[in-house]
Model the fold of this input.
Amino acid sequence: MVRIKKNKNNSIPKVLGVVGARSGSKSIPYKNIYPLAGKPLMAWIIEAAKNAKFITRLILSTDSEEFAKIGRIYGAETPFLRPLELATDEADDISYLTHAVSYLEKNENWKPDIILRLPATSPFCSSESIDACIQILLDDPKASSARTIKKTPKHPFKQWKIEGDELKPFLPKEITGLKEPSQASRHSFPPAYAHVDVIAVRYNTLMKEGLLTGKRTRFVLLNSEAAIDIDDLNDFLLAEIIIKRKLS
Done:
């Protein structure tokens, strides 16, 4: 059920969705427009966002005019091209999100209350999970952000790091409380979760504090299939199989 709460000034909250899709990709050239089941990869998240009930505006942040043209075909706004310095491997999510918000404030006098980070590499992200993250912020005024998560298949207590020519536990004993956590049953560990897909964050948390998390973060738990992120060709093959199965 859709529940929209008005702001203190009696206005409906404005929600900005930002799909990040830079043209540079080392794993697969032009990965974000690589075809998946007959559509460019980034089209899947754009369509999901367009079907979400709470998004006021949907922006595609890209450094490529070709990507921008494709984004417009599927319904995203492209009021700017992302500066090249914000489209490198080193550029983080906060940089392109704050750029998008600042552009709209300066050039269109439009300020969102909630900003959504929507990765182009998440074809199974649903409009329902997008709306669920937004709904949390609408219902919980103390929440700084909300994000989708999944249970991680590889527990961090069992991970390793390389120091010189040796393997060391990734997390020290002071954190795990175990001499050899790699030998312990995973059922004895507290459940661990990884972030996937969507982040919904309040304006002040992003623009004033420079954070995507903030003091209080809520969550929407996804199943492993919904949380698939496309990184390489194997991921594309898996996604194709899932889509064909759903259509059969």
User: Anything to note?
Assistant: The radius of gyration is 19 Å. The helical segments are 41-51, 65-73, 93-108, 127-139, 173-176, 203-208, 233-247. The first strand starts at residue 15 and ends at 20. The chain has seven helices and ten strands.
